[in-house]
């Protein structure tokens, strides 16, 4: 009789099965095993590697082989040290986007009002509010399903009393009427070119309306950037995520709107975000 496969055996087999479809095969196999065991990776390594492999693990690996992202399979993703529930209705928060939050906190550590444009899971807004105990925030999104996810995350993180989530579409007339001005604006708008080559896990599973922005990926910037001056408080700062080839184009759009831009790089040293402020002599009254 064959000896039942152990956790270690199953992880090795899953790594081989995933090898051609991802460059994080071993990590994915380990994360999904920890999920199947309902424990942390550390606990798995310390105490569970010689246990029998759980029956449900094969199904999790089959989903990953079909390019479903690990975050959607597990149903959550860590961002800025916080856990966020994620579904296919929202983009998966990525570590490179943490630079937006870090730059915003460095620029406005005393911020009292925070706006997140296209909030998705609420990751940017809620991460910022977790470090700004005196601040209140507003997250807008045109996806009701995404707002449901963000609302659940705000509750789970104990931030529901300081985070308002509501429908908003910056391509619609007067969408921002009555919102007022904000010390910090965060935005990760769609910026992927329509014909860009993407991993199947992204193109086939993450929400297209949160990814794609026309032939050059700049359609949403052209609409959104000119509206930022009307939402930004004097001395405020906006952090806008960009694609790694879009710095010059978005900086030019910002200049046309009376905003100066400072580039921030991500963990890999690639252009990731622009920090926008009113140009000298500009401001809420005359921007």
Task: Give a verbal description of the structure.
The chain is of the alpha/beta class and 287 residues long. It contains 11 helices and 9 strands. The strands form 2 sheets. A 7-stranded mixed sheet has the order 5-4-3-6-7-9-8, sandwiched between helices. Strands 1-2 form a two-stranded antiparallel sheet. The protein has helices at residues 7-18, 25-37, 41-48, 57-65, 70-74, 98-107, 123-131, 144-156, 200-203, 219-224, 247-256; strands at residues 76-79, 82-85, 113-117, 136-141, 163-167, 182-187, 232-241, 259-265, 271-278. It is elongated. The N and C termini lie far apart (78 Å). Helix 1 (7-18) crosses helix 2. The longest helix is centred in the first third of the chain and has 13 residues, at 25-37. 34% of the residues lie in helices and 19% in strands. The protein folds into 2 domains: 7-66; 88-278, Rossmann fold (3-Layer(aba) Sandwich), CATH 3.40.50.
């Amino acid at each position: 009789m064959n000896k039942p496969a152990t956790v270690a055996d199953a992880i090795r087999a899953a790594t081989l099965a995933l090898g051609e479809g991802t460059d994080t095969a071993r990590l994915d196999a380990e994360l999904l095993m920890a999920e199947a065991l309902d424990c942390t990776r550390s606990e798995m390594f310390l105490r569970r590697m010689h246990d029998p492999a759980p029956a449900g693990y094969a199904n999790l690996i089959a989903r990953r082989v079909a390019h479903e992202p690990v975050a959607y399979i597990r149903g959550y993703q860590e961002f800025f040290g916080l856990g966020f529930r994620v579904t296919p209705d929202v983009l998966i928060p990525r570590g490179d986007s943490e630079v937006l939050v870090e730059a915003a906190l460095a620029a406005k550590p005393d911020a009292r009002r925070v706006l997140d444009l296209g909030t998705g899971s609420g990751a940017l807004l809620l991460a910022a509010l977790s470090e700004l105990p005196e601040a209140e925030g507003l997250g807008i999104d045109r996806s009701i399903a995404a707002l449901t996810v963000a609302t659940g995350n705000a509750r789970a993180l104990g931030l529901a009393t300081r985070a308002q989530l509501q429908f908003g579409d910056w391509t619609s007339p007067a969408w921002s009427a009555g919102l007022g001005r904000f010390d910090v604006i965060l935005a990760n708008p769609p910026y992927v070119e329509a014909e860009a080559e993407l991993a199947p896990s992204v193109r086939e599973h993450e929400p297209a309306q949160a990814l794609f922005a026309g032939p050059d990926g700049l359609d949403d910037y052209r609409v959104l950037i000119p509206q930022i001056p009307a939402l930004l408080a004097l001395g405020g700062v906006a952090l806008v995520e960009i694609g790694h080839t879009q710095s010059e184009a978005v900086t030019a759009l910002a200049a046309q709107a009376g905003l100066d831009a400072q580039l921030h790089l991500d963990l890999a040293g690639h252009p990731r975000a622009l920090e926008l402020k009113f140009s000298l002599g500009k401001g809420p009254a005359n921007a």
